[in-house]
Specification:
Structural class: alpha+beta
Largest sheet: 2 strands, antiparallel
Helix content: 25-40%
Strand content: 5-15%
Shape: extended
Strand order of the largest sheet: 1-2
Number of strands: 2
Radius of gyration: 18 Å
Amino acid sequence: FLVSKGRALMPSLFDEEITASYAGLRASTEHDDYVIDLDADQHIALVGGIRSTGLTSGMAIAEHVAGLLADAGVDVTERDDLPPPPR
């Protein structure tokens, strides 16, 4: 079922070999929740422990971190000299 629906949405995707397994590194922690820490003096945000929920929450996490940085006095003004995000 899923393969047929996927083929209908993106037929050219099935011209490629399907990878049935993978190996990788995903930082996790012993905590049950995300780890979000800020060092505003260094302009560093630590964001980790984001498991599979990060796929749907990534933009909200980014907005939250941008808000934390802004509240700490870091200039988070959007830049016009960057390329547009991929679509």
